[in-house]
Each structure stands twice: as structure tokens, then as C-alpha cells.
């Protein structure tokens, strides 16, 4: 599986607030938060699904990984999605280990594993 996704009984708004708090404890910041439903409505497009994209970054880890291979920037910042599907709130992300595997570097794989573990922990604590 290229992604990690969980369900929560929390509303999207509460799940996002909890996620942001947990990310902060792990030294990840939310660089950008896109409410896709709202953005599409601004463009006069009908879209009923609540769908939020958070781009998150830990600057220390980003510097470490980009210093080794600039192509990794194609995967950064990390994305965490909070959305509603059939009345259920879900939180998920593409796994950094799956993405970094495309670059095929042993050293970077170790960093990706650590980042993935920390992001999964943040997601799990937000459920």
C-alpha cells in the first residue's frame, strides 16, 4: 500500500485541529491548508465532498534529505489528507517510504522511515 489511512469519529474540523496539535509536538508545521470543497465552490464548481489537503514539513528533516538528493523535493512537503467519504471522516497520507523508494537510496530510506513513523503517530493520536 502506498498510503496510510485511518477512520475517525471526529468531525473534519476537530480532526484537523487535533492533527495540527500533534504535528507541532513532532516539530512539523502546516505550511498550507487547502479546503478543496471551498476552493472549488469559489470557482463555481459543485463539489459536495469535504476534502482538506494539509502540506506539512519538518524543516530539519527537509534540509537533511534535500541536501542529499534534490529530486526528493518532488515529494515535499508531505501531504496529509482529511476528508469525508460516505459520512466517515478519514485521515491519510502517501507513505514517505513508498515515495522515497522511487529515488532508491539506502540513507534516504532510513530518514523516510523515521518521518513516516512520526507522521503515522501524529495521525493515530488524532483519531
Overview of the structural elements:
This protein is of the alpha+beta class and 127 residues long. It has one domain (3-126): TT1751-like domain (TATA-Binding Protein), CATH 3.30.310. The chain is 45% helix and 28% strand. It is built from five helices and five strands. It has helices at residues 12-25, 36-42, 59-68, 96-100, 106-126, and strands spanning 3-8, 29-35, 51-57, 78-85, 88-94. A five-stranded antiparallel beta sheet has the order 1-5-4-3-2. A hairpin with a 2-residue loop joins strand 4 (78-85) and strand 5. Helix 1 packs across helix 5. The protein starts with a strand and ends with a helix. The model has no long low-confidence stretch (mean pLDDT 96).
Helix and strand topology:
Elements: E1 3-8, H1 12-25, E2 29-35, H2 36-42, E3 51-57, H3 59-68, E4 78-85, E5 88-94, H4 96-100, H5 106-126
Antiparallel strand pairs: 1-5, 2-3, 3-4, 4-5
Helix pairs in contact: 1-5
Amino acid at each position: 500500500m502506498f498510503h496510510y489511512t485511518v477512520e475517525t469519529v471526529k468531525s473534519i474540523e476537530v480532526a484537523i485541529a487535533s492533527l495540527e496539535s500533534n504535528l507541532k509536538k513532532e516539530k512539523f508545521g502546516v505550511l498550507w491548508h487547502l479546503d478543496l470543497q471551498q476552493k472549488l465552490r469559489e470557482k463555481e464548481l459543485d463539489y459536495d465532498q469535504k476534502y482538506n489537503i494539509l502540506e506539512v514539513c519538518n524543516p530539519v528533516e527537509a534540509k537533511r534529505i534535500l541536501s542529499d538528493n534534490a529530486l526528493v523535493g518532488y515529494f515535499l512537503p508531505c501531504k496529509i489528507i482529511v476528508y469525508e467519504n460516505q459520512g466517515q471522516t478519514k485521515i491519510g497520507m502517501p507513505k514517505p517510504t513508498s515515495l522515497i523508494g522511487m529515488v532508491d537510496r539506502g540513507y534516504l530510506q532510513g530518514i523516510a522511515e523515521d518521518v513516516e513513523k512520526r507522521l503515522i503517530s501524529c495521525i493515530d493520536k488524532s483519531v
